[in-house]
Amino acid sequence: VDFKNAILVMTSNLGSRAILDLAEGAGDREEVERRVMDEVRSHFRPEFLNRVDDIVIFEHLRREDIVRIVDVQLELVRARLKDRDVSLTLTEAAKQVLADAGFDPVYGARPLKRAIQRLLLDPLAERVIGGAIPKGASVTVDARDGELAFSA
């Protein structure tokens, strides 16, 4: 494997409190960047940071951003279901349940993947394995009383 031109992307939530403060109107961009970089320097040795080509500080994620990420993640789920010739449709209410369960202003989208696994994928897999969702089925997921409801 040739690693000469390899690109490594690493994400971290270091400084997320400062970024959230900026979103809430406390402080300006320069102050937030200084606070974030202070935190980065306190966690990583200078020898490591010297090898990092660039550090990008992202804006915090809003709830509407999380809903869009839900859509991206659902495309991955649909691709997996395609092997079983199963189609999947989620109502906006169902997407909102997933977004609400996976939203954390400090940790960003990381909890979303776990929420999708727990609330959508695990119950979906149980239904497929149990035969409630046969090959070729169309599955619709809606929200009822704040929980996902499946129909095939």
Biggest sheet strand line-up: 1-2-3
Q: What is the helix content?
A: 40-55%
C-alpha Rg (nearest Å): 20 Å
| Unreliable segments of 5+ consecutive residues | none
Overall geometric form: elongated
How many strands?
3
* Chain-averaged pLDDT: 89
Indicate the structural class: mainly alpha
Distance N to C terminus: 46 Å
| Portion in strands | 5-15%
The main pleated sheet reads as: 3 strands, mixed
Q: Compute the number of helices.
A: 6
| Order of H and E elements | HHHHEHHEE
List keywords for this structure.
152 residues; elongated; 11% strand; 6 helices; mainly alpha
Task: Kindly describe this structure.
The structure is a single chain. This protein is mostly helical. Helices cover 52% and strands 11% of the residues. The protein has 6 helices and 3 strands; from the N terminus they run ααααβααββ. It has a 3-stranded mixed beta sheet with strand order 1-2-3. The longest helix has 21 residues, at 110-130. The radius of gyration is 20 Å and the shape is elongated. It starts with 15 loop residues before the first helix and ends with a strand.
Summarize the structure.
This protein is mainly alpha-helical. The protein has six helices and three strands.
Secondary-structure topology with pairs:
Layout: H1 16-23, H2 29-43, H3 46-49, H4 63-82, E1 87-90, H5 92-102, H6 110-130, E2 138-144, E3 147-151
Parallel strand pairs: 1-2
Antiparallel strand pairs: 2-3
Helix pairs in contact: 1-2, 4-5, 4-6, 5-6
